[in-house]
Amino acid sequence: MAKPFRDGRPSVAVASAIFAQTLEMPDIFLDELPLASMKSGNEQPKRKTQYRKNCIGKPQRLGGVTYERGIGDHAGHDFAVELVYALKPEYRRFVSLVGVDDQTGHRGSLRVQVYVDDQLKAKTPILHGGQELYYFDLELPRGAKQLCLVIDDAGDGYDYDDADYVNAGFLVSVPHK
Ligand SMILES: [Ca+2]
């Protein structure tokens, strides 16, 4: 079984939801934290990030697996959607499984980038509905102030670009290696 890397490089892609079951759970979940800010172009007034649901308020499902914890959102039309979280000193790592929600019926395509204090730390390839998932596991630099998740439509329009971040959040201690 491959192990997710621990050193902050762009994360490994995973092909199977079974792999996801072996991943480390965060100590603090994104779905229990407030958004520090959000940028979503001119859709700002009507956009709403979903907590413990996909972007239309249904259970989050990736690769046939339903996840209880996570956030759901949607790529924007010709603009990137940015979700910003404030970091606390005790946060050591950010982890998240990312993919296109199963409700799209294998449609949709998107990319996710992770920035820490405006510096790109990790990014997915183009993720397609019903296909690959991606796992972020990155070290947070000491003193980092904010984490920003950026979703874009992968350049082909935003239809069915339903992004799930599941088992997503922060670990507050360094794991044994
Ligand atoms: Ca797309």
Task: Give a brief outline of the structure.
By secondary structure, this protein is mainly β.
What does this structure look like?
This protein has one helix spanning 17-20, and strands at 13-14, 28-29, 37-39, 50-51, 60-62, 65-67, 70-74, 81-86, 93-100, 109-116, 119-123, 127-128, 133-139, 146-152, 162-171. It starts with 12 loop residues before the first strand and ends in a 6-residue tail after the last strand. With 177 residues, it is mainly β. Mean pLDDT is 84; it is low at 1-12. β5 (60-62) and β6 form a beta hairpin. Strands 1, 2, 4, 7, 9, 13 and 15 form a seven-stranded antiparallel β-sheet that branches. Strands 3, 8, 10, 11, 12 and 14 form a six-stranded antiparallel β-sheet that branches. Strands 5-6 form a two-stranded antiparallel sheet. The structure holds calcium ion.
The class by helix and strand makeup works out as: mainly beta
Distance between the termini: 16 Å
- Rg, please? 15 Å
Order of helices and strands: EHEEEEEEEEEEEEEE
**Ligand list:** calcium ion
> Helix coverage percent of residues?
under 10%
Low-confidence stretches: 1-12
Mean pLDDT: 84
Q: Helical segment tally?
A: 1
Extended strand count: 15
Instruction: Give the strand content.
Output: 35-45%
> Which overall shape is indicated by the principal axes computed on the Cα atoms?
globular
Largest sheet: 7 strands, antiparallel
